[in-house]
Amino acid sequence: MPDQLTTPAAGKPASHLHPEGSFDLADHPVPNGREEVWRFTPIKRLRGLHDSAPLDGHDYSVDVTADEVVHAASVSVDHPARGSSGYVPSDRVSARAWEAADKVFLITIPKEAVVETPTVVTLRGSSTATAAAGHLVIEAEPFSQSTVVLQHEGSAVFADNVEIVVGDGAKLTVVTVQDWADDAVHHTSHHARVGRDATLKHVAVSFGGDLVRLNASVDYASTGGNVEMLGLYFADAGQHLEHRLFVDHNQPHTKSNVEYKGALQGEKAVIVWIGDVLIRKAAENISTYEHNRNLMLTDGCRAHSVPNLEIETGEIEGAGHASATGRFDDEQLFYLQSRGISDDEARRLVVHGYFADLIRRIGVPELQDRLLASVEAELEKNVGLPVASSGVGA
Questions:
Q1: In this prediction, what percent of the chain has a pLDDT beyond 70?
Q2: 147 pLDDT exceeds 80?
Q3: Rounded Cα distance, 194 and 226, in Å
Q4: What is the number of structural domains in the chain?
Q5: CA neighbor of 201 nearest in space, from 216, 189, 187
Q6: Domain that holds residue 307
Q7: Which of 47, 91, 115, 256 could cysteine-pair with 288, CB 3.0–4.6 Å?
Q8: Would you say residue 172 has pLDDT above 80?
Q9: Locations of Basic and acidic residues compositional bias (predicted)?
Q10: Amino acid 349: pLDDT
C-alpha cells in the first residue's frame, strides 16, 4: 500500500515493513489494524496505548544488580545519551512512549572494562490500572565486554524504548526476558547501533503477558560490525506474542544472523514473527541470514511467520532466509516410544531438545537453567490438551 512506504530521502530506499520514523506524534496516525505494520496485532488489546490512553502511571519499580565498575543511574530526559543510538520512533506507541517518559535509565559499561557477571535490571509492574512509559539506554564503551539482562515481571500496561550503543571493538550481550503476569500488556522497541568491529548479541525471550509486541532494529556505525539476534517464545491459550525485526545493513563488510524459535499451545494462542533485512547499495561484502521456526503443540493455535530480504546490491557474500512452522514429527515420537518412553515424556523430550540448543547459544549460564525450567513449566500447561501431530517436522 503506497501510504505504508518509506519516502526516499537522502538516498534512503523505501521499505514497506519499516516506515520512516518521526518524533512528532502527529506523524503517526492512530492505527486501525489494516496497516501493514499493524495487521497482525489485536489493536483492541493494547489498552489504548496506540490511541490516547494516559501514559502517566508509574506503578512499577526498577532494581539493578551490577558489578561495581558498571554505572547505572536514572538521568533526565535531556541527557545526551538519549537518542545517541540514532533511534527514531517508527510507530505511534513508541512515539508516545518517547514523549511521555519523564526520565531515562542509563547503564554504562566503561571503556575496556571486562565485566564477568551480568548486569541485571528487573522491572516489576504492580497494576494494569494505569499505563506507564519508560526509556532505557545501554552504552557499551569501546573495547568493553559485558552482558545486560532485562527482566520484566508482574502486572503492567507498559510502553518503552530501549537504545543500545555498542562502541568500536566492544562485545555486548543484551537479553530481554518478558515474564509478565497473565494480564500484562507490553509494547517495546529496541534499537541498536553497532560500531567498528563491534559484536552485539541481542536475545528476546517471551513467555508471559496477555500481549507482548517487541520491535528490534539494528544498524551499523561503521564497517566490521557483527550482530546475532536470537529469540525464544512460548505462547499459551489466548496469548499474543509478536516479534518484529529490522536489520539495516547500511555499512559494507558487516554481518548479521537472526534465529528465532517458538512454540504455541492452546486455543487462540498466536505468535507473530516478522523479519526484515535491508541491504543498502553501499553495503557491499556483507553476510546475513534469518531463520524462524515454530512448533505447534496443539490444535486451535496460529503462527504467522514472514521473513523478508530487501537487496540493493549484488556485491554481497551471502544473504538468505528461511521459515518453518509445523507440528510434532511422528517419526521422532515413534522412535522414542519404541524405546520404552511414554507418549507424554517423548513429547516433552522433543520440545526440550527443540529449545535447548538455542538456550545454550545465549551464552549466559545464569539464565540457562531458568529458561529450561520455564519451558518445562509451559509444557505442564499442555497436560490434557489435544495434541496436534503430523508427519511434517518443524
A1: 89
A2: yes
A3: 8
A4: 1
A5: 216
A6: 2-326
A7: 256
A8: yes
A9: 17-30
A10: 78
- Does residue 378 lie within any of the structural domains? no
Hey, what long-range contacts does 327-330 have (CB within 8 A, 24 or more apart)?
327/295, 327/296, 327/297, 327/388, 327/389, 327/390, 327/392, 327/394, 328/295, 328/297, 328/387, 328/388, 328/389, 328/390, 328/394, 329/390, 329/391, 329/392, 329/393, 329/394, 330/389, 330/390, 330/391
- Helices 343-362 and 365-380 sit at what angle, rounded to 10 degrees? 150
* pTM as predicted: 0.91
| Integer CA distances (angstroms), 361 to 51, 203, 259, 339, 350, in order | 39, 10, 11, 29, 18
- Rounded Cα–Cα distance for residues 232 and 217 (Å): 17
Residue 331, in any domain of the structure: no
Tell whether 373 is covered by a domain. Answer: no
Q: Which pLDDT tens digit goes with each residue over 100-118?
A: 999 999 999 999 999 999 9
Burial class (CB in 10 A: 0-12, 13-18, 19+), 236: buried
Q: Locate 278 and state its grid cell.
A: 535491508
At 109, list the grid cell: 559499561
Q: Is 92 helix (H, G, I), strand (E, B) or coil?
A: helix
24 occurs within a structural domain: yes
